[in-house]
Amino acid sequence: MPRGFLAVTKLKLTKPNMKMKKEKKPKTPESYKTRTKTPTLRNLLLGPTAKTNLRDTGLGALYCLPDDLLHDILSLLDATDLAVFSTASKSTYVFSSHDPLWRSLVLSKFEGQFSFVHSWKYTYINSLTGKPPPVPESLKITNFYSDYLFQSYLCANMEFKPEWLKRDNIQRRRGISVEEFISCFKEPNKPVLLEGCIDTWPALKKWTRGYQTR
């Protein structure tokens, strides 16, 4: 067999040494990513170095108000006033950007006539203007700690076990003995609803309306 034929055959069977270029995925804008969590006060107290909570220094005279009370006050503002409040400081920006505030504004103003866009704040702007809002640069704020603002992040990102979603998943027992209660529920630390515990109480028959008015 001619040498040229072998050379051509070998060349055809050899895999080309080429690396395929991976297509670059478009980056998600920082402001459209999942909201970052507000660290809890535990991070402030147990941190490696002493820190100052930006929450207190940026609220001025409002720093003495608990976070939940301040949230209730801000919930009375409309969207314009809330946006103006956010420009006062980094702390006011964090509080006024709390998504539950904007969720209430969306539901009260647009009711069911809206499409959710990335967050409730952007949903409000999108529903008001009829077009997606421009993507601003991400505003990174550090040294801000709040247990109250952390709760919404925890609820939004915590995984739910399937059994948590079942209805009436706690056992109901009637006439259970002390020994059975200890062995079946107290020691394994399981919840139980005890029924009929006060069926024999005299007050159920004695405490009538006439008895109470004597």
TrEMBL record:
- Domain F-box: where? 59-105
Under the heading Pfam families, the entry gives: F-box-like (PF12937)
Write out the GO MF terms.
Answer: cis-regulatory region sequence-specific DNA binding
In residue numbers, the region (Disordered) covers 16-36
Record-given protein name: F-box protein
Checking PROSITE patterns in the record gives: FBOX
SMART domains from the xrefs?
FBOX
- List cellular component terms (GO): nucleus
Taxonomy, superkingdom? Eukaryota
